[in-house]
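Dear colleague,

Thank you for sharing your sequence with our group. We've completed the structure prediction you requested, and as agreed, I am returning the results in plain text so they can be pasted directly into your records. Please verify that the sequence below matches your submission; if there's any discrepancy, let me know and we will rerun it promptly.
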Amino acid sequence: MYRVTAFFKTHKVSRLFDNLYDAIDYRDIADAHYPMKVTFEKGVAPMRTWVVNCWNVVMDHEKNPLSVIPDFSTRHLIMQVLAWMWCIVFGITVGSWTVFGISAVGHVLLLGAIAITVATFETAKRKPAVFNLRRGYHTPGRSRSLWIDGRRVLLPKGDPGGEHE
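Please find the predicted C-alpha cells below.
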C-alpha cells in the first residue's frame, strides 16, 4: 500500500494505491500542480482498508479466484455452496465449545472447510474449464422418448430430453 500526499497552501490531497506504478504516476501528476510539498509513503494503510480488501478477496465474485469461471450462474452456485458449508461449520463450532470431543470435530470441520475453499479457488484459478457444463449432458432419469396421442415418439440422437428442454 502506498500513500501519496500533496500539500498546497489551502488544502492537502492524499490518495492510497495498491500498485507502485499508479502511486508514482499520481505523485508526478500532483507535483505538476506546484504543491508546496509531496510525500510518498510505503506500507501505510488504515485498518479499514485492509479489512475491506480482505473481504473483497473472498466475497467479491469479480475479485476472488472464481472470477475466471466464465458462467456467472456457475460462479454464483459455487459461492452459495461455499457459504452454506461455512454456515454449517461455524454453527457446529460455536455451539460446541463446552464439550471437547464435539469441539475437536468442529475444529476438524473448520480446517476441512478452509481446505475445500482453498482447493475450489485454486481449481478455479488454474483450471476454470472444470466448472463448465458439458453440452448434451442429461441425467439418467430423463426420458429418451415422448408419448404423444397414445404413441411413443423417440427423441433425436443429440436431444438431451427432459421436460424443460
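Summary note from our side: Residues 86 and 155 are 43 Å apart (CA to CA).

Kind regards,
the structure core
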